[in-house]
Every structure is written in C-alpha cells, then in structure tokens.
Amino acid sequence: MLLLRRLPLLAALLGLGLAVPIERPKGKKDEEPPPEAPETGLYYDRYLREVIDMLETDGHFREKLQAANAEDIKSGKLSKELDFVSHHVRTRLDELKRQEVSRLRMLIKAKMDATMDENVQMDHIGLLKQFEHLDPQNQHTFEARDLELLIQAATKDLENYDAAHHEEFKRYEMMKEHERREYLKSLDEEKRQAEEARYKELQKKHKEHPKVNVPGSRDQLKEVWQETDGLDPSDFNPKTFFKLHDTNSDGVLDEQELEALFTKELEKVYDPKNEEDDMMEMEEERLRMREHVMKNVDTNHDRLVTLEEFLKSTERKEFGDTAGWETVDESQLFTERELRKFEEELAAQEAELAKRAEQLQQEHAELQLRQQELDVQKREYQQALLQMEQRKSQKEAPPSGPNGELKFQAAADMAAQPNSDVQEPAPAAEERKPQENNEIQPEQ
Fold first, then answer.
1. φ, ψ (nearest 5 deg) of residue 184
2. Which end of the chain has fewer beta carbons closer than 10 Å to its terminal beta carbon, N or C?
3. C-beta contacts of 307-311 below 8 A and 24+ residues apart
4. Which residue ranges in the chain fall short of pLDDT 70?
C-alpha cells in the first residue's frame, strides 16, 4: 500500500505523521513539480483527495493542523476548525459532498437493479448509512461531522488494508493451485506425469537464487549502500543512509521510501522474463518486507520511520541478523483443509452461476417466442391495414366508362328503388328521333 505522503495535510489527518513539510529552496519550486501521489486503494479515494486538496488551500486550517497533535486529529477536535475556513472553501466542500452522495446513489441503484425488482422503492438514506466516510443525514453540506467521519474511516480502512491484501493474495494462490490440479485431472496418466515433472522443475529453478537478506538488517542496507548508492560498504553510515533515502526530505521514511529499499532483494528472486517467477508473489513479498521493518523499527506505530527510530534500530541485536529471509514461496500460505473449503465455495458459486445462466437462457427463449408472436401480429395488422386502404380507395374513386359516363348507373338507380318493378330502360331521344322522322316523312 502506498500512502499519500506527498500530501502533508492528508498524512497528518490520517495520523500518519505530523511533520511539517520542509520548505524548498527558492528557485526550485517551479523547476520540479511535486510527484503525483499514489492512490490509497480506498473506494472513496477521489473524494478523500479532493477534500484534502481543498482544505490545503485554506491558510487558517493549515495553521491549526500544524499546531495540532495526533490525538486532536483523531478525536475530531480539529474538525471544529472547519467553521472558520473561507466561504469559497466551504462552498467547494459542499459541492464535493453532493457529488459523492450522487455517486454513491448511482452505485446503490446499479446494485439494486442487478439484484432486485426495479419496482422496489429504495431507501437511499438507509443505504447510504452503510458508507462510513460521510454523514448521510445531511446530504447537501460538508460539516465538521463529515470531516471527522472521513478521518476516522480512512484511518481504519488504511490500517486494515494490508490484512485485506494478504487475504486476497492467499485466495489468489489457492485459485492457482486449484486450477493446476483441475488441469492435471484432464490429462491422461503419461501427460500428467510429464506435467508434474515440469512443475517441480520450475519450482526448483525458482528457488535457485542468491540469499535474500533480512529487510532492515545491516547486510541488506549495506547492499543498497554499495549497489544503489555506489558507496564503499566499509564506509557505511546509518545517518547518511537515512538522509540519502529520505527522497522528499521531510525527515521521515514513509512506506513508499522503505519499499524502494527492497528492490535489490526482490530482483534476486523475481524476474518478469522467467516463467517460474510470479510477479504477484513479488508484490506480496515487498509488502511482507515493509511490514517486517515497520514492526521492528516504527516504535510509535505511526507508519513512519523517523531518524531517531532508524538509528535505534541499527543498535539492536536483530540489525546484525545474517540468517536470511524466508520468501513467500517458502511459507505455507494455506492448508489442504483451507483449499478444500475454498474449492467448495467455488463449486457453490459455479452452481449458482449455472443456475442463473439457465434462468437467463430460459428468459431469452421466452423473449424470442414472444418476439415471434409480436412479429406475426404485426404482419397481420399491416395486411389488414393494407386491405382497408384498398377498400377505401375503391369507394373514393369508382371506375368510369370510356366517355366519362359512370358504369352500372342503371344498376345503381335500380338499387336506389328496391321495391319498383324491373323495367327495360327507355330508348334515348337520339335513337327515337330517326324513327319518328321516318313515320311523318311523306313519300316522294
């Protein structure tokens, strides 16, 4: 875990040390921008950073912080100074909190939508109570209670981070062993034996490395002094070593600076080019080394090593330990019983996933069937609509004869008189006239 030691205020707020940052010499402020601080690993890391960045801009709050002690910070006494920060800072803090509440609501809704009926009404306030880094009762303004809760939550979560990381790595190793055994089951006897032999050969090759020195021991520090600093081992001086590796010159070695000291030891065991070397194990090794040094050197447990603590550690008997360091691959991380329990949990999860997949497949088939029914109904509707349009068109524009006269007029007239006798249509005037003329025309 890498803590935000590059942000002095954040380190102080989390109880990680109250050293006042050393002012840089004039002319260097603009030449070298401060390195970007690594993430804390907390799920509210961005919110934490933004709140701290904003508080750092207020001179009154920064002054009170430098005068406070760790107990004042952890007890919440410093949080009351929030009432005296500038209006601009308070306004921005209010905005940051509203954004965080909105983000948490979106996460809650996404989780609820994935596990429950969308029609179920959510109690956002009740669900927000699950998050300990802010006050859910007041969702619009950032108050002293919010700062107090943020400090307490971050301190607790960072203290538990290493334990959570170890547990995660243990599960990673069990999964790796489980997959290896499952793969062996899929092979025939001859291939299984060949794979087992290959696995043992890789293990043997991985263990063929130089002796790893105990982290924080004289031999380990002298090796850094010689190979990294390029100095004569016979001239090793703990005080000079401390100043050389206090890279940000704040008077303490933080966790990031300590872990940098173990690079040479880790390179003895792990090479990313080698198949037998697992880089996940290397990071676990780095964490174990840092914890070992902190346990033996950090006497006040503030997760920082002062010069005084460092010098005292070089006077202890353990400083001359030459026995060597037991690497993580040489340690038994889990028992067969723990592995069986882990595999049972995996089997239960796989069964649940299979059940859910079957349900989704069934729902998919039902949706496809419903879609087909809707398509049929749509085609029938379109056909009926087309027929209606055709009938309507026929009624609005009936066909006409060659001279523009309507056909079937007689039939229409007859239809208009349903009770009248059927009669032959009277001859047209033009047809009768010639006959009448013929009748009256005298003979010549």
1. -60, -35
2. C
3. 307/239, 307/242, 307/251, 307/252, 310/238, 310/242, 310/253, 311/238, 311/239, 311/242
4. 1-41, 68-76, 112, 114-130, 397-444
